[in-house]
Every structure is written in structure tokens, then in C-alpha cells.
From TrEMBL:
This is HTH luxR-type domain-containing protein. InterPro entries: Sig_transdc_resp-reg_C-effctor, Tscrpt_reg_LuxR_C, WH-like_DNA-bd_sf. Keywords: DNA-binding, Transcription, Transcription regulation. It comes from Caldibacillus thermoamylovorans. GO terms for biological process: regulation of DNA-templated transcription. Residues 427-492 form the HTH luxR-type domain. GO terms for molecular function: DNA binding. The keyword Transcription applies. It comes from the Bacteria. PROSITE patterns: HTH_LUXR_2.
Length: 494
């Protein structure tokens, strides 16, 4: 079964919750220290911080919550100062920073968790009373509806348990402190009758299944025929509204993925960083498993492999292919050349089966089935800089939904803007032009590697690496490696 964009963003959210759970003790220690510092200067905000941080214990460590359930269970006290939530997020990031095993992707997952919390708390205040709990409470409290009480029963381990009680008159239903449970709804209802203190002979109990619970409604017998149809209809309307709200929120998740991708690529410090962040970003924030990034030379009509993520990088970098050997891709390029300036954006190309579209050698080498070709371009001029080729793993068939398609357009645009920025910087000054391999050699030299160590890292012979070093020094007109590295760092190449 293929993944959707919503699946991927939910996975990112779950990862954030899991990271918090795994580091819970360290986070608690850091929070305690922060609160003590604020208590010395501002007691009021320290108390508010303690209330909000209690949320961490009650919700964030429950990593099994799906995104929609997690959001719907946010406590009302979370409607607090945005500074406190930001501080809480920073504390989590600080703890992760001290954990050498954590990755940049872990930090992005944490950021996404707090982004969704902030969005719910501060951007959707009108949803504060939209939970089932509040809805039932309003029904029971209404003076216009003759409902005496509603008990929510849940099936827990094949046993029906009364988990919540709503009553118009608290004295009319006096339940014990221990939980009430029974094998069937009928038996549970019989038990509940024993705790009615008023005129139980005039009350009837009507069970109404709703979602994953059963509502046991107590009301006067003479009102059953009028109230129950209204109640079931009202519950249906409520359920429909909740589904519509969920769909509306999910339809915006592609924007979340775009924001996260932009933050990742904008953090690139060098051209090589940009390639790595773009290639990994396509996989981390979209429902894909592998990505390969290519540049495009319009004059020579060729595609040059730049970088790969979750795929053989060496094999990708060795690819230099005439796009005329990819008829469908070549056709799209012709359309772009003829109508490019009239197009508002350049669309991705979904290929259900790569056989017959891609050269046979690449299909077998990379085990291709379904793929997506995403144009990497400058939106201001619709100039094509290259493309990202994505799939969901070896020999995997998949489809893409509308949300993923929309996100891919924006990803390609953002990737184009950041690559154009570094490409412009690389071409400024001495106008050096380095291949991806030469840039990799430069980066390894900057990290202190010898030619022998660089050869091992790149799986090349030491003679080949020396040739790369000689070519680099000649292009930069420098006398030694140290000078080459210094210039490369100064120019922002590495």
C-alpha cells in the first residue's frame, strides 16, 4: 500500500512525540531548572509555566496518539502565552542538542509537533468547545431538552466501562468511586439504574452507538419518541462537522511539508549542503523513499547526476544522460521551451511504470517501477535548472494524490531558488566551476583528510584524488591545498 502526504506528515509528528518520550527524563530536569530560574524573578509566569509544562507529562509522552486524536485531546489550559510554548520547544531542542545520537530530522520532527500545537491553540480558538465531551455536556445542560443524563461507555478489553457521566442534576445520579463495568451494554445499564436516586420508574435508558463509544441516554419515557430521533440526527450533524473539519485540516498539511522543506534548505551553508538538504528533504517531508538530484544543461540537452538520498550516490554522480533518450521527459522539455514564460508553474511528471520510458540499464540498476520527475526551476523566469527523480523504493508501484502534487510544485520551486543562489555565488569572482566530485574532495580536505583518506572515503584510487586536487588548484590558481581550502571557504563553496 502506497503512502500519502498525510501519512508522511503524521509519521513526522509521531517521530517527534517518540523523541520527546525517549528523552523525557532529561527534558524534565531541564524544565525544572528553567522554572527555578524564573521563580526567582517572576513568580506569576513561573506558575503559568508549571501548568503548561504539566501538559508534557499528560500528553507529549503518549507517543501512540495519532495526530488528529492528539490535537483533539489538547487541554483547555493550553490556551496560554505563546512565549511559554516557545520556551518549552527550545528546552526540548537544547536537550536533543546534547544528545550526539540525534539527527537534524529529529529536530525538524520536534519543531513540527510544536507547530501543530501552536496552530491549534492560537490559530483555532473557535474550536475550543468542539470536542464530543463539550457537545454532550451542552445537550444535557440544555433546559429545552428533557435529557436527565448521558453516560459514555467504552469497550475496554472486551468489557463495557462507564468512563464519563453527564447529568442535569448531579444529585439524581450518584455513582461510586470505583469504575462501573459489565460484559454487555444491557448489564451496564442495569447497574446504572441502581444508582439513580430520583424517580427511576419514569426514566428509560436508550443506548446510542457513536464512533468508538456507546452513549447511554436516560430520559422520561414519554419523550423518547421525540428526543431520540432528534438526538441521533444531531449526533450525525456533529460527526459530519468533525469530519469536515478534519478534512479541511488535512488538506492544509501539504503546506506544512512545504514550510518544513523551506526551513531545511534555507539552513544550507554551502552548495554541497544545499544538494544534501534538497535530496533528503524530498524524502523526509513527502511520501517517498529515494531521491536523486540532477542538473540540466539546455545547450547540450543533458542531465548530470548531482546527489542521491537512500540510493547509491556514486552511481547517481556517474550519470550523464542525453534527455532525448527519455522521450516523455524530452517532450515535457519541449513544451516548456515553447510555452515556459506563459506557464505559472512547471508541473511534476508522474510515471506509473518506468519501463519503456527510462533506459533499460537504469531500470535494472536502480530497480525502478513508479517514479515522479520533479522540475527544479526558477519561478521568476521558469528557467529549468534540473530535476529530482523520486520513488517509494525498489520495484514499488505507487500513486500520488493532489496534496503531494501541489507540494512537489513548491518543493521544486524552493529547490531551484536555493540552488540558483549558490550557483550564482559559485560563478561570481573567479567564476570557478567545480564538478560535484571536486567539491567533495575540497570538503574532505577542509575536514583535514589526506589524499589517501579522501580516496577511501570516496571509494576511488589515491591517484584519481590527486588528479582532482591538481585540477582544483589549477582552476583556483593557488599553490597548495591549504590555500585552496581557505579560498573555497571564503567564497562559500564549502
Amino acid at each position: 500500500m502506497f503512502m500519502t502526504l498525510n501519512d508522511q506528515m503524521n509519521t513526522l509528528f509521531q517521530r517527534g512525540l517518540t523523541v520527546i518520550k525517549d528523552n523525557y527524563e532529561d527534558i524534565q530536569k531541564e524544565l525544572h531548572w528553567v522554572i527555578q530560574q524564573y521563580k526567582r524573578n517572576n513568580k506569576n509566569i513561573a506558575e503559568a509555566m508549571e501548568d503548561t509544562f504539566r501538559f508534557l507529562t499528560e500528553h507529549l509522552i503518549r507517543a501512540e496518539f495519532p495526530l488528529n486524536h492528539f490535537i483533539s485531546n489538547l487541554p483547555s489550559k493550553m490556551n496560554t502565552n505563546p512565549f511559554i510554548l516557545l520556551l518549552l520547544e527550545n528546552v526540548v531542542h537544547k536537550v536533543l542538542q546534547e544528545n550526539a545520537k540525534k539527527t537534524h530530522h529529529d529536530h525538524f520532527s520536534i519543531h513540527y509537533v510544536f507547530t501543530k500545537i501552536s496552530e491549534e491553540v492560537f490559530l483555532f480558538p473557535y474550536q475550543k468547545n468542539s470536542s464530543l465531551k463539550d457537545f454532550i455536556n451542552h445537550l444535557v445542560a440544555s433546559h429545552q431538552l428533557p435529557i436527565d443524563s448521558i453516560i459514555v461507555a467504552e469497550n475496554i478489553n472486551n468489557c463495557f466501562v462507564a468512563t464519563q457521566v453527564y447529568t442535569k442534576n448531579p444529585s439524581s445520579l450518584s455513582l461510586p468511586a470505583e469504575k462501573l463495568e459489565a460484559d454487555t451494554i444491557y448489564d451496564l445499564t442495569e447497574i446504572l439504574y441502581n444508582y439513580i436516586t430520583g424517580n427511576k420508574n419514569n426514566l428509560s435508558a436508550v443506548p446510542i452507538p457513536y464512533d468508538h463509544v456507546t452513549l447511554i441516554v436516560f430520559l422520561p419515557r414519554e419523550d423518547i419518541s421525540k428526543v431520540i430521533p432528534f438526538l441521533t440526527f444531531t449526533l450525525k450533524m456533529y460527526n459530519d462537522s468533525q469530519k469536515s473539519l478534519l478534512i479541511a485540516k488535512q488538506s492544509q498539511q501539504w503546506k506544512d511539508s512545504v514550510i518544513m522543506f523551506n526551513e531545511k534548505v534555507m539552513g544550507s551553508q554551502t552548495y554541497t549542503d544545499a544538494l544534501q538538504n534538497i535530496a533528503s528533504g524530498f524524502v523526509e517531508f513527502l511520501p517517498f523513499e529515494r531521491s536523486a538530484l540532477f542538473s540540466y544543461n539546455k545547450n547540450e540537452q543533458t542531465g548530470l547526476g548531482l546527489y542521491g538520498h537512500h540510493i547509491d550516490k556514486e552511481a547517481i554522480r556517474n550519470i550523464t544522460e542525453n534527455v532525448q533518450n527519455l522521450p516523455l521527459v524530452h517532450k515535457q522539455l519541449k513544451i516548456l521551451e515553447n510555452f515556459g514564460r506563459r506557464l505559472k508553474y512547471i508541473q511534476p511528471l508522474y510515471i506509473r511504470d518506468a519501463k519503456g520510458i527510462f533506459p533499460e540499464q537504469y531500470i535494472n540498476q536502480f530497480e525502478l517501477k513508479s517514479v515522479v520527475v520533479v522540475p527544479v526551476y526558477l519561478s521568476s523566469s521558469n528557467k529549468l535548472l534540473g530535476a529530482a527523480i523520486l520513488d517509494q523504493g525498489p520495484w514499488q508501484y505507487f500513486k500520488i494524490d493532489k496534496d503531494t502534487f501541489l507540494a512537489l510544485i513548491k518543493f521544486g520551486q524552493s529547490a531551484g531558488e536555493i540552488l540558483a543562489k549558490y550557483d550564482k555565488e559559485r560563478k561570481s569572482g573567479k567564476k570557478w566551476h567545480f564538478s560535484p566530485r571536486e567539491l567533495e574532495v575540497l570538503k574532505l580536505l577542509a575536514e583535514g583528510a589526506s589524499t589517501f583518506e579522501a580516496a577511501i572515503e570516496m571509494h576511488l584510487s589515491e591517484y584519481t584524488v590527486r588528479d582532482y586536487v591538481s585540477a582544483i588548484m589549477q582552476k583556483m590558481n593557488v599553490k597548495n591545498r591549504t590555500e585552496a581550502v581557505a579560498k573555497a571557504i571564503r567564497e562559500g563553496l564549502i
